[in-house]
Amino acid sequence: MKAFLCALALTLPTTLHAQNVSIDSAAGPAEVAVAPAKVVALDFAALDTLDALGVAVAGRPDFTPPAYLADAVTGIPTVGTLFEPDFEALAVMAPDLIVAGGRSQTQVPALSKLAPTIDMTISGEDLVNQIKSRIDAYGTIFEKTEQAAQLKTRLDAAMSETAAAVSDKGDALILLTHGGKISAYGANSRFGWLHGEVGLTEAVPNLEAGNHGEAVSFEFVADADPDWLLVIDRGAAVGQEGEAAAATLDNPLIAATKAGQNGQIIYLDAAAMYLAGGGIQSIMLTLEQLKTAFAGANS
Amino acid sequence: MLRLATIIGLALLLLASLSVGAADLGAQDDGGLFLMLVSRVPRTAAALLAGAGLALSGAVVQLAVQNRLVEPGLTGTPESAMAGLLAVTLIDPGAALMVKMIVASLAAVVGTGGFLILARHIPRQDPVMLPLVGLIYAGILGAGVTAVAWSTDLLQYLGAWQAGEFSGVLRGRYELLWVIALAAVLLYLAADRITLLGLGEDRARSLGLDARQTMLAALVLVAVMVSATVVTVGALPFVGLVVPNIISRWRGDHLRANLPWIALAGGLAVLASDVIGRVIRWPYEIPAGAIFAVVGAAIFLWLLYAAPAARSDHG
User: Fold this and answer.
1) Looking at beta carbons, which residues of chain B come within 8 Å of A256?
2) Which residues of chain A have pLDDT under 70?
3) In a domain? residue A6
4) ipTM > 0.85?
5) A135 with A62, same domain?
6) Are B86 and B144 in contact (CB under 8 A)?
7) Same domain, A182 and A95
8) CA A32 to chain centre
């Protein structure tokens, strides 16, 4: 049905574009007008994927973007923060479509009164399938099904390459550092796809972790003694300097772990993981980083 | 008898703090010595020092404004220390810990001084008036700090300073807290003067005390102790309110004689909160500040409810 609609949309003259298509959003199936002209994206994952598809947006959140998206968003007007859209600016702009999600998910009902809004949140488990579903949806809306298919193929290839690179290289623990403190993330967390879908063994199985991870002590990491530490620096993710992750982890307890002794502490691109997690470019970047790091290690 | 019970309680708590943690001491190659030195001993010392510092600060502030219901959290001290920290973080993010500490202390002196000036103009008939004003004052300062942090994307940092906890404490990460021990010694030397301050400025002056100077010295000590805590482990509300009240109810208001007890009880209260926070979701952590806030709130309500009817001056 979807393919048929897309094909139909592509063949129809542009004057008939006010037609609706059905896409899968985080809130279930949604009806959206095809090829909206003025699009606002309130989430970096959405900005990321739209940029990869070559869709230009007319508004974005007022927040320092991840470095790889910096060029893509310069010059685009801002419409509120990641959490709180600027409703007045949006009303003036009168967009044809608002892509919300993630940190702005709670604002979807309010935004819907203003303009057609879709909730494109990507959360927790089954991340890769959600990313693909979003790519499909954007491809349908913006009549770029071919590019969408290409992106998905590249993602599949990168996934299997990275999965091959990490297999049999030992277990890993995902840590988020903020200030001088650390939290651990498990397979059910927002970063859990590194375990569940890439196939990294968990150093601490069944880590009870919701979206925000578990506050842990350095002793916890020492006790888990993982082969690899995957570190996300929250400060760096949101553009702060000082108290970097490396300084937080530079202590005797971390140094004594297998990861510390073998130099297997990987500082993931924090902005890609933390801010734009779920964007196609973000996940490709992280997969590439993991592949490079693990490929150089002995099993 | 009481003394013996205290010593046994202290010993048990120290033992608990040294033996409880995410890692298993018995499973270490060196019998846990490394873990002890790097993690357990520093964490125990940090909790004791932070608790002692906050309890002592509370006692001093209560005497200085002659009100039992005030504590550093109600005089804008942590908030102004945070304002100082925020300023350093904005101007020079990589500044040394000592620089951050000094700026935070200076800001705390200014902020607390502001409250003391405000306190002079508050009518004293109702003892709840002053804490209320303090609550509002601290709230305004806190709102200002939050607004600046919000507009500069530093809210997450602010969160770390606001939630007092010890999970990040390791050897080399908490030593600043020993400033509290130093301040406690100075406080002990000045204790009699500060006790006089508790009689009110006029009476203190007629007893031959330079009230202004003493007030300033007390203020600086409080600011240093609170800032050291905020900089290294974050703010721990309620400790400065609950602990001195319990001690002075039990032993009266002789500050010099009470100081060791206040310091000890404050240290133990915070250490106990930290041990509980380490245990209830083992091997994960619950902030000691959150544990104490729950327990401390209960004790505070009990104090209010069980206030002796005969005492009406709250002095």
Assistant:
1) 34
2) 1-18, 124, 208-211, 239-243, 298-299
3) no
4) no
5) yes
6) no
7) no
8) 23
Q: How far apart are CA B80 and CA B105, in angstroms?
A: 9
Give the mutation candidate from B39, B150, B154, B174 for the A interface (greatest A CB count, under 10 A).
B39
**Does B286 fall in a domain?**
yes
Residues A114 and A65 both lie in one domain: yes
Q: What is the C-alpha separation between B148 and B155, in angstroms, rounded?
A: 9
A120 and A180 in a single domain? The answer is no
- Across the interface, of B38, B39, B156, the residue whose CB is closest to A178 is B156
**Is A248–B167 a contact, with Cβ atoms under 8 angstroms apart?**
no
Which of B24, B94, B285 has its CB closest to that of A215? B285
Identify whether B33 is part of a domain.
no
Decide if A115 is inside a domain: yes
Contacting residues of A for B280, CB less than 8 Å apart? none
Whether B32 contacts chain A with CB within 8 A = no
Which range marks the domain in which residue A204 is found?
A: 168-267
pLDDT, mean over chain B:
87
Question: Tokens at residue B288, please?
Answer: 């000691």
Q: Which residues pair with A60 in a beta bridge?
A: A78
- Over residues B235-241, the mean pLDDT reads 89
As a whole number of angstroms, the distance between CA A247 and CA A31 comes to: 49
- A-chain residue closest to B88, CA distance: A242
Residue type at A96 in one-letter notation: D
Token pair in block for residue B42: 């520093």
Instruction: Decide the pairing of beta strands A171-178 and A181-185.
Output: antiparallel
Residues A76 and A133 in one domain: yes
A230 and A130 belong to one structural domain: no
Collapsing DSSP to helix, strand or coil, A164 comes out as helix
Task: Note whether residue A150 is domain-resident.
Answer: no
Question: Would you call B173 and A251 a contact, using CB atoms and an 8 Å cutoff?
Answer: yes
| Under 8 Å between Cβ of B45 and B36 | no
Quote the domain boundaries for residue B192.
Answer: 43-304
A222 in any annotated domain: yes
A172 shares a domain with A140: no
Query: Which residue has tokens 């013996």?
Result: B4
pTM equals: 0.84
Closest CA relative to residue A178, chosen from A134, A238, A88, A118? A238
Tokens 């006692």 -> residue:
B59
For residue B186, the SS3 value is helix
- In the DSSP assignment, the letter for residue A77 is P
Gyration radius (Cα) of chain A, Å: 20
Q: In this complex, which of B94, B172, B278 lies closest to A241 when CB atoms are compared?
A: B94
Q: Helices B41-64 and B255-279 meet at what angle, rounded to 10?
A: 140
Same domain, A109 and A181: no
**Number of domain units in chain A:** 2
A95-128 residues labelled b (16+ CB within 10 A) or e (exposed): bbbbbbbbbbbebbeebeebbbbbbbbbebeebb
Q: Assign residue B138 the CATH number of its domain.
A: 1.10.3470.10
pLDDT digits (tens, 9 = 90+) for B131-146: 999 999 999 999 999 9
Give me the number of domains chain B comprises. 1
| CATH number of the domain that residue A240 is part of | 3.40.50.1980
- On whether the CB atoms of residues B110 and B125 are closer than 8 A, the answer is no
pLDDT tens readout for residues A278-294: 899 999 999 999 999 99
Verify whether the Cβ–Cβ distance B167 to A217 is below 8 Å: yes
Strands lying side by side in the sheet with A97-100: A39-41, A97-100, A117-119
